Amino acid sequence: MEPNCTAGGAEEEHHGNYSPNPSAEVTPGKHAVAEALEEVQEELIEHQPLEQEDLNFEKWKPKPKPKRTLHEKAFDVKTYLWNAETREFMGRTGHSWFLIILFYTALYAFLAAMFGACMWCLMLSISPYHPTHNDRVMPPGMTMSPQLDGHYEIAFNASDRKSWKKYAKLMEEQLRSYNDALQEQRNIQCPQDAYFMQDDQEESAERKSCQFKRSWLGECSGLQDPHFGFSQGKPCILLRMNRKGVPESLGELQFFPKSIFNLMYYPYYGKLRHVNYTAPVVAVRFNGLQYDTHIVVKCKLNGKGIINDSPTDRFLGSVSFSFDVGA
């Protein structure tokens, strides 16, 4: 009987763990089936045709903002300029404005200091007496006076004061700095026919200048004849450099003081050192110009190393001008 009792107890224990409701336990296979069904249903829903209500895109558009009145706009501008609640001016507090002003002040002060330092270093490397770039014509050039507005044409009637008065006025202005008293006050007498060399002095030392007196120009000085010969049909001109050929139509020529430029006025040391430098001139008086004739005059410089026949530069070693003189 004991063995039966033992067996009955084991069976009884087994029945105690048995669940009478079979739906209380779900096997793993049933879970997989349920999930698969849900996925199929979702796919079917996605592929269903859209309803007419869903195709109405107008409802998805953003609604237009209501128009703002002028008063509202003015209020916003006023608030932007000064917001009393946050105590902000143009969107920034006083502390923020202070920091940004301080930053830009320091930035531009640094840039200005750096630029000034660069310019200072550059100026230290440049000599005011010997420029590194020179666009002047190296061989001697030649100019003449009088000339009106850069035109090298002299046209007048000897009997018409208005036609030549402008030329006489220009001549007077050109020769004013050559007055004898002014030359004696500023410049010195130099030995003639030799270069006046002053290279033995310091670079920044002022160089002395040689006298060139107005009285040396004789009849073309304007001292005896303030009209410079224009009223007589015998005009005078001033040349800044050397000799010239004499065609027959020019008639007799007179040169004052000579037909050369004396060497004592050279070399020229520049405006900073040759402060009172007076450029020598040669005055030419045309005593026999033919009236009512267009006469073209070309003056050339002759000397060692001088170019006076350049086909591209009419002022290189020469100058051209014309006369039209009426009685």
TrEMBL record:
Belongs to the X(+)/potassium ATPases subunit beta family. Pfam families: Na_K-ATPase. GO terms for biological process: potassium ion transport; regulation of DNA-templated transcription; sodium ion transport. It is found in: Membrane. It comes from the Eukaryota. The keyword Transport applies. This is Sodium/potassium-transporting ATPase subunit beta. The chain crosses the membrane at residues 97-126. It is a single-pass type II membrane protein. Signal peptide: none annotated. InterPro entries: Na/K_ATPase_sub_beta (IPR000402), Na/K_ATPase_sub_beta_sf (IPR038702). This is the non-catalytic component of the active enzyme, which catalyzes the hydrolysis of ATP coupled with the exchange of Na(+) and K(+) ions across the plasma membrane. PROSITE patterns: ATPASE_NA_K_BETA_2. Residues 1-30 are annotated as: Disordered. Keywords: Ion transport, Membrane, Signal-anchor, Transmembrane, Transmembrane helix, Transport. GO terms for cellular component: nuclear inner membrane; sodium:potassium-exchanging ATPase complex.
